[in-house]
Every structure is written in C-alpha cells, then in structure tokens.
Amino acid sequence: MKIVVLNQNDMKRVFSMEEAIQADKDALELYSLGKSVIPLRVNIDVPKHEGQSLYMPGYVANANALGVKIISVYPKNIEKGLVGVPATMVLKNSETGEVCSLMDGTCLTQIRTGAVSGAAMDLLARKDSKVFALFGTGGQAKTQLEAILTVRPIEIVKVFDINMERAENFASRMTEAFGEKFDVKIITAKSSAEAIEDADIITSVTTTKTPAFDGRLVKRGCHINGVGSYTPEMHELDEYIITHADKVYVDTRDGVLNESGDLIIPINKGIYSGDKITGELGEVIAGKAPGRANDDEITIFKTTGSAVLDLVTAQRIYESAIEKGIGSIIEF
Ligand SMILES: NC(=O)c1ccc[n+]([C@@H]2O[C@H](COP(=O)([O-])OP(=O)(O)OC[C@H]3O[C@@H](n4cnc5c(N)ncnc54)[C@H](O)[C@@H]3O)[C@@H](O)[C@H]2O)c1
Questions:
Q1: 69 catalytically annotated
Q2: Does pLDDT of 322 surpass 90?
Q3: In the chain, where are the structural domains located?
Q4: Is domain 117-306 classified as CATH 3.40.50.720?
Q5: Of 40, 175, 223, 290, which residue is most buried, by most CB within 10 angstroms?
C-alpha cells in the first residue's frame, strides 16, 4: 500500500484557489442533490487532557471521495507551543478502501473555507463589487481574502479586528502577498462602521459572541458571508441583517440550523424561521433555488462547514499531486 503525504507547501503548489472554488461548488451541488453520505461528526471527550477528538467522515461517489478529517481541540496545547486545533485529512481509495493519502487538515480547512465563500460570492455578489470589508484576521482570514480577490475586481479591502495590532500586521502581510498580484489596496479600519461603509461585500470570520457589525449600516446590493459562528451562542451576524436581507443562503440547512447562533438566536426569539432560508448554495448551483435578482438586493451566505467540502477538495488535491508527482510516499 502506498500513501501520499502532502504538507501545506505541497498542497498549495498543486492546487489553486480557482480549483478549490470549483471543488466546493461541485461538493455542495452533490450534497444538495442527496448524492453524498455525510454521517454526523463523532466527538470523543478526553477529559484527562482537557481535549476533544473529532472525526468527520464521508463518501461522495460522483467525486470518488472517501475519507475522514480528524481534528483535535486541545486548548492546553498552546501552553506547550503546539497547535490548539491540529487536523489531518485521511483519504481512501474508494475502489480498494486503502488509505491513499494523508494531508495537512488545517491547510485543507483554510482552503475549502475560503473557497466556499469564493463560490458564494461568485454566484451571489454584484459583478461590479469593488470595496470589500473583512472582519477577523486570524487563521482563516488569508484564504477568505484570496477567494474574494479571485472572483471579483476588488480595489479596496478594509480589515477590522478587535485586536488592532493583529489587523495592522495582517494588512501589511496581505499587501505583500496580494497587493501587486491583484492590484488591490489593503488598509485597516478603525471601527466596524468604518469597515462596512460603502462595502459591496462583507466577510466576517471571527470568534465573536456579539455581532461584528451593525446590520442597519449595510449598503443596498451588498453580499455578506458569515463564516465564524458555529455554535448556538456565537452571534456574528446581527438579527437586523438576518431579518432584513432579501435572500439568505446556507451551505447546509442541517449544519446552520443546528449549529449557528446567527440563525438559531433570531429563530428562538420568534423573529425568523428556517423556512425563510432562500436555499442551500448547492440548490442555486443545481438551478433549484433562485440567485440574486438585481443589484439592489442584500444577500447573505452563512456557512458552518461540512465534511463534503473537505472530501471533494482533498480528493482533487490528491489527484493533482499524483499528476504532478508532488508529495512524499510511504510504502507498507
Ligand atoms: N464555516 C466554516 O467552515 C469554518 C471553518 C473554519 C473555521 N471557522 C470558524 O471561523 C472563526 C475564525 O477562525 P480563525 O481560525 O480565523 O480564528 P482565530 O481565533 O485565528 O481568529 C479570530 C479573529 O477574530 C477576531 N475577532 C473576534 N471578535 C471580533 C469582532 N467582534 N470583530 C472583529 N474581529 C474579531 C479575533 O481578534 C481574531 O483575530 C472561528 O469561529 C472558527 O471556528 C468556520
């Protein structure tokens, strides 16, 4: 048995953001058409070490994608100088059932999560979007930015983080990485209101429990990606914007309605309901739900993530690595 091991450098060398966006679109379409097997995530507590071990398995026949993403949440790792949320993707050959690849699961999550916002913006944001506001400058922020720059001709990016130093640092690193390539100016905003002033697209990728910005200040025609909230207590998009947006899309109804405070909180207050969701993004791709109707609508895409995104993206990365002869091989 041969296993191809891919680290983050290998993964980035063999796979572009455009390819990742296409992989996520295909994954969500197959999911929404009922063509994937995605069991519930298995969570095992490891109280002795204050940790949690999570397993996200799945199978997507049409994409030949079979495997499991293994994640640990070990907050005390930080004190030891280790990653707090380490992740590894284990991919199997769907024909033989043998493990065929191991790859950096943290890098995979960053790629597929940036790409899913990229897919949403490609489908839903106004074509002439020029001003982009980014909330949160942590581990997920770079691929969120890369995805936007890949699908729309953005001229100005305004980043906001409650940690101003981190925001400044991020803006200068991103200017170096993307400034010239995409001909874009990346600056920091001093307040959340300043960040969303004139924004055509807003992405929020924070760990906040109180809304990141005031929905009343969002300009008409704006598209918003809500990426951060994945527990019922995490409230990133405020109730005003959820209840006043013209269209609300999700990656999976199941995930968002069971996990994200962005929708659960207004639903529990009786001011919103799950059947007001316009559709899953996969339904838009499959032509089963409407997209943006005009340049005036405010659209929202809320994602909590799904193993279907990991599986299809990982399989495509693996196929590309094989084709290009990249990665280390373990035989046993
Ligand atoms: N939807 C998905 O598929 C998906 C995938 C991966 C991660 N996530 C979630 O996205 C969130 C961000 O992930 P990360 O790895 O970048 O986290 P991180 O901890 O590295 O960074 C979060 C950043 O948000 C900032 N922040 C917190 N509250 C803020 C606020 N009100 N306004 C502006 N900035 C604020 C923090 O200062 C920090 O810089 C997490 O909640 C994570 O679980 C979602």
A1: yes
A2: yes
A3: 2-108+308-331, 117-306
A4: yes
A5: 223
